[in-house]
Amino acid sequence: MLDFFKQMSLVRRFEEKAGQMYGMGLIGGFCHLYIGQEAVAVGLQSALKKGDNIITGYRAHGHAIITGATPKSVMAELTGRAAGIAKGKGGSMHMFDPKAGFFGGHGIVGAQVPLGTGLGFAAKYKGTDNVVLTYFGDGAANQARFMKPSIWPSFGTCRLFM
Ligand SMILES: Cc1ncc(C[n+]2csc(CCOP(=O)(O)OP(=O)(O)O)c2C)c(N)n1
């Protein structure tokens, strides 16, 4: 429990600093903070095993840190540096580290839903029991990518949790 608390505090402190730097004009583009959602990333990540993947929308800093990125590499990404988790080319919304099981970071609201489903099918076709967590907000739940009922039957053993 103490470790969970440390991870949550790390994300909170990081985001407070990122918000401060954004206000000072040191971070270009958008900057979507993960403040208030720390327990979601920490709790769910703690239930995953090797080979499980996650994917999310643009509110991605916390997930990057919790899947193993150093705060330094996330801050480097925010400030557009080559040492960033996405080589400084993604910025706040497009953190990306597939080796750590983290498939972004997506600026298009709801884009992560079909992509996450595809990752789930990949795990299924490979015959693994790995799972994929697709995170999205209530805004994304109103997108056709999520809503279209005709694709639901083909989900098979892919289960959808909200
Ligand atoms: C396809 C698409 N439509 C609209 C937008 C503009 N947009 C940016 S954030 C946002 C709201 C998303 O809300 P939610 O998914 O609940 O995420 P939250 O910011 O609340 O975490 C919208 C509509 C977008 N980025 N992509």
UniProtKB/TrEMBL annotation:
Pfam families, per the entry: E1_dh
Entry cofactors: thiamine diphosphate
Gene Ontology MF, one: pyruvate dehydrogenase (acetyl-transferring) activity
GO BP, sorted A to Z: pyruvate decarboxylation to acetyl-CoA
Keyword vocabulary terms for this entry: Oxidoreductase, Thiamine pyrophosphate
Oxidoreductase is among the record's keywords: yes
Superkingdom field: Bacteria
Reactions catalysed, as given in the entry: N(6)-[(R)-lipoyl]-L-lysyl-[protein] + pyruvate + H(+) = N(6)-[(R)-S(8)-acetyldihydrolipoyl]-L-lysyl-[protein] + CO2
Transmembrane residue ranges: none
CDD domains listed in its UniProt record: TPP_E1_PDC_ADC_BCADC
Signal peptide: none
Keyword Transmembrane: no
SUPFAM superfamilies: Thiamin diphosphate-binding fold (THDP-binding)
Domain Dehydrogenase E1 component: start-end pairs: 7-147
Function: The pyruvate dehydrogenase complex catalyzes the overall conversion of pyruvate to acetyl-CoA and CO(2). It contains multiple copies of three enzymatic components: pyruvate dehydrogenase (E1), dihydrolipoamide acetyltransferase (E2) and lipoamide dehydrogenase (E3).
Protein name in UniProt: Dehydrogenase E1 component domain-containing protein
Species, as recorded: Iodidimonas nitroreducens
Species lineage: Bacteria, Pseudomonadati, Pseudomonadota, Alphaproteobacteria, Iodidimonadales
